[in-house]
Amino acid sequence: MPNLITVTSNADSGTGSRKEAIANAQLENAINFASSLSKPTITSTLMKFPW
Predict the structure, then answer these.
(1) Whether pLDDT at 15 is above 90
(2) What end-to-end distance do the CA atoms of the chain give, in Å?
(3) pTM surpassing 0.70?
(4) Angle at 9 between CA 31 and CA 42, to 5 degrees
(5) What is the DSSP string of 23-46?
């Protein structure tokens, strides 16, 4: 079962940010986005995702 990393902040960096979650994720991790985030849309222009 994967370890769960939860994004809790809309901030560009720092504790709970999407950037921190991606940087700390290992192959067996899953990234979850807290339902309390005000802007759940993800736009990436600098990063290619493997899917």
Answers:
(1) yes
(2) 20
(3) no
(4) 60
(5) HH--TTEEEEE-TT-S------SS
